[in-house]
Amino acid sequence: MDALVQEVNGVATANQSCGHDPHSTIVLYLYLALAIASAESALNLLSDLYFSLRKKKEKALFK
């Protein structure tokens, strides 16, 4: 997708270290799962995902 130029042992090399590829893959597979699922199960999946991410965010904020 994109790469960052980093110097390793005096040599500039391209290094994929920003994390966009895994996030893009997750979004793609979520889209595919929702496209296959029925409307009710798709809403349940999105609701579970939302509350799971919300809990993680709240936990990180209140450490």
Poorly predicted parts: none
Structural class: alpha+beta
Outline: elongated
Helix-strand sequence: EEHH
What keyword list fits this structure?
63 residues, alpha+beta, two-stranded antiparallel ribbon, 2 strands, elongated
Give an overview of the whole structure:
The protein is built from two helices and two strands. The chain is α+β, with helices and mostly antiparallel strands and 63 residues long. Strands 1-2 form a two-stranded antiparallel ribbon. The chain is elongated, with a radius of gyration of 18 Å. The protein starts with a strand and ends with a helix. Strand 1 (4-8) and strand 2 (11-15) form a beta hairpin. The protein has a domain at 20-61. The mean pLDDT is 76. The protein has helices at 20-36, 39-61, and strands at 4-8, 11-15.
Q: What is the element layout, followed by pairings?
A:
Layout: E1 4-8, E2 11-15, H1 20-36, H2 39-61
Antiparallel strand pairs: 1-2
Short summary of the structure?
This protein is of the alpha+beta class. It contains 2 helices and 2 strands, in the order E-E-H-H. Strands 1-2 form a two-stranded antiparallel ribbon.
